[in-house]
Amino acid sequence: MRRNPIFAIAVLGLSLAAVSPAHAQVPYNEGNVNRIVLIQITPGHFDAFMADLKQNIVPVWEGEKTAGLIIDYHIFLNTTHAGHDDWDIGYSLVYKNMAALDGLADKVYGIRMKQYGDRAAEQKIVDKRVENAHLVSSMLLRVITMR
After folding, report:
1. pTM, whole model, 2 decimals?
2. Taking a C-beta distance cutoff of 8 angstroms, is the pair 138, 40 a contact?
């Protein structure tokens, strides 16, 4: 009768000894998440696009940054056009991780309304924005560091 508890302890000990530290299945660590957006500006609308960016979009990003919704943002110009359909300007929004994207629209809504006033005013600005530029590409990228 004493053998059952001893046997159980022995089996438990062997099973714990058999568990070795698991090796990573991927050779990298996951880092920040970047939303990259590439935009082509309508010819002759560069100044209007940049004014909208400065007056309306950057303040929303600053609000998101202050609220801790994004880590940072970057704006960049394409200096090596590959053709007439290529993008002109791009931006990156840097998030801490994928979880930061959960419920993001609801979290940003108050910041947007603070900037625009109400949905109707925001829609008028967005309609004008569509005249100034169009989306070429949007992607979600994950930063990785090699292990």
Report:
1. 0.79
2. no
